[in-house]
Amino acid sequence: MEAMVVSADHHHQLIGNDGDYRPVNGLKQWWIIFWIETVKLWKIGGPIAFNILCQYGIYSITVAFCGHLGALQLSAISIAQNVIGTFSFGFMLGMGSALETLCGQAFGAGQIHMLGIYTQRSMVILLFSTLLLLPIYIFATPLLKLFGQEHEMTVIAGKFALLSIPELFSLAVAVPASKFLQSQSKVGVLACIGFLVLLLHAFLLWLFIYVFNLGINGAALVYNITGWANAIAQFVYVIVWCKDGWTGWSLSALNEIWAFVRLSIASAVMLCLETWYMMSIIVLTGHLKDAVIAVGSLSICMNIDGWEVMLFIGINAAISVRVSNELGQGHPRATKYSVYITMFQSLLIGILCMILVLVVRNHLSILFTNSKDLQRAVADLAWLLGITMVLNSVQPVISGVAIGGGWQSSVAYINLGCYYIFGIPLGCTLGYVANFDVVGLWGGMIAGLALQTLILSFVIYRIDWNKEVEQSAERLRRWGGQNLEAEKTLNSDPAKDLLHLPP
């Protein structure tokens, strides 16, 4: 409480006439800024993280319910969710992350009327993206067999994927709607909707699996119902209660759509290279001996790690909003301080998660399986899980900074080199050649993640934030327009020269 009073008393001393922080002198001023930025971060990040944790809870509860049907069902649903579901969600989230950059910077610059246009444009792009992903769902079983997975697992996983196609289409509405709200820090409603949908999902799973005895089919049906419940609830809130940003449907959303696709693809490649990296370890583990136990134990570890990752995806979204808003307002120091403080706090949380996992390692898998073999296998992997949690605490923050700043393509190249040229080959060598099995696979991929984190941390340290502000202003001039005529004409989109965006 005292810190809040101190920060209020000295706030005017830290802020210059341009609204940005003045240069900091002394530990006391650092502490005040640390407190101010912490409050701003968690005011946005807390509800977003809670909403994303609720969304992940839908996945995790589904795995838990199906896991108690048997070890085969656990492994099959984990394969379907981690390979097919993660592949698709990563791609859709990436294609929607361009909206995060543009809406955040437009909101920071006061061009709120453009948010609805950008959101509609993103919905069109994501709808076509779902059509591109459909063959993966339709041919899930032969694709998983092609990757060398066991026959029984692939049949169940393929059936679940095929039945859950309607949920895929819900992402074309849910992802843009959530980015629209996040960019304006209207995140409390996302948390409320996410929590209610999670409760609905848990109830329907119990009803369809244990009361109606529909098994895997019931789980897929519930997935579709709650996916669309979430999407419709968010979209209704956008069009009814966000009249300043959503001014109705407009044909301007179709203008220069290819240039928007370019930024969307850059975002998708960056996030997909990250998301698919950890997904690939599940596929590679399917080639090991005793694949059911190997995949099952690793899936449980990935599920537990996913809870922490979802928390940091919330922080990722929050720092993305903070960076894009501050850049849009022309505040380089505020951007830099926000990034550094967020990275420091995230690292502390990651270390605490690692300690917790190591302390309770013998009891980690009780919620997911009754199999003693699986429980022992999970306990043996706990130390790798702990290291992964520490690295995953920093990496999403860096990605959020990249999205907020609009330099996704640079991060994509770094991800490609660290993950797929270094990490996966090293993991395969340790797992298959050196016969360390799943420990070798996971260890090699952790090395790739560590390399990527070190490189991007150095890149962020060397960033010229004043230059980033200039590039943000240029991007908004080209994409959103800054002349009065554009702001008065809601149906006009001055983004005529998008193809000439600076890198």
Write the layout of secondary structure elements.
Blueprint: H1 2-14, H2 27-67, H3 71-108, H4 114-138, H5 140-146, H6 151-163, H7 165-183, H8 188-211, H9 215-241, H10 257-285, H11 291-329, H12 332-359, H13 372-380, H14 382-405, H15 408-433, H16 437-461, H17 465-479, H18 484-488
Helix pairs in contact: 1-2, 2-3, 2-8, 2-9, 2-11, 2-12, 3-4, 3-6, 3-7, 3-10, 3-11, 4-7, 5-6, 6-9, 7-9, 8-9, 10-11, 10-15, 10-16, 11-12, 11-13, 11-14, 11-17, 12-14, 12-17, 14-16, 15-16
Description:
Belongs to the multi antimicrobial extrusion (MATE) (TC 2.A.66.1) family. The chain is mainly α and 503 residues long. Helix content is 81%, strand content 0%. The protein is built from 18 helices and no strands. The chain has helices at 2-14, 27-67, 71-108, 114-138, 140-146, 151-163, 165-183, 188-211, 215-241, 257-285, 291-329, 332-359, 372-380, 382-405, 408-433, 437-461, 465-479, 484-488.
